[in-house]
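can u do me a favor
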């Protein structure tokens, strides 16, 4: 559905863009809010993100739309946060971010990882039984290969192979937007 909307938008259909904005409005807001931690700033940033998405659509190459807009949103929010910090330093205002949030460079990865984990939890029942436990242990419970192997009483190489095959199954059966 997103691909059809994107094509219409590229052809100048503003109504299609409004539909896309409505579909992803909350997602973009929550993404930028996760970085900025201020509702007003997040509302402004979300609007700016949609402008960036609109102007960047010609470069979009069907690589997973939700992931693509999430990256745009996170990067824009990080840029805003950096500007706020610089402005604060210029005014000699002490700005202490230590302990309040992760470093800006890792925020994007954390948001994407959290989103991937949430999507995976929703779709776990679709996985074949022989992959479900190893995927859940690795991606949801954040266990290492060694911990999973010990739990299942198998060699680490067996876990590596199971995870590889599980990833292949997911790539084959799920669209990138469903998992990326």
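np, heres the sequence
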């Amino acid at each position: 559905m997103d691909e059809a909307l994107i094509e219409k938008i590229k052809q100048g259909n503003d109504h299609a863009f409004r539909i896309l904005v409505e579909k992803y409005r909350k997602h973009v807001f929550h993404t930028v809010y996760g970085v900025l931690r201020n509702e007003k700033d997040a509302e402004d940033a979300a609007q700016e993100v949609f402008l960036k998405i609109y102007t960047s659509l010609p470069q979009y190459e069907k690589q997973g739309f939700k992931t693509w807009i999430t990256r745009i949103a996170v990067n824009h929010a990080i840029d805003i946060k950096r500007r706020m910090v610089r402005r604060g330093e210029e005014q000699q205002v002490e700005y202490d971010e230590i302990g309040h949030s992760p470093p800006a460079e890792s925020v994007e990865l954390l948001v994407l990882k959290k989103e991937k984990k949430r999507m995976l939890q929703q779709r776990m029942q679709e996985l074949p039984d022989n992959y479900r436990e190893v995927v859940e242990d690795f991606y949801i419970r954040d266990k290492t290969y060694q911990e999973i192997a010990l739990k299942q009483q198998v060699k680490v190489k067996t876990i590596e192979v199971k995870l590889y095959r599980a990833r292949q199954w997911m790539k084959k059966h799920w669209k990138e937007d469903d998992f990326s």
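Residues 92-102 have pLDDT under 50 and may be disordered. hope that helps!!
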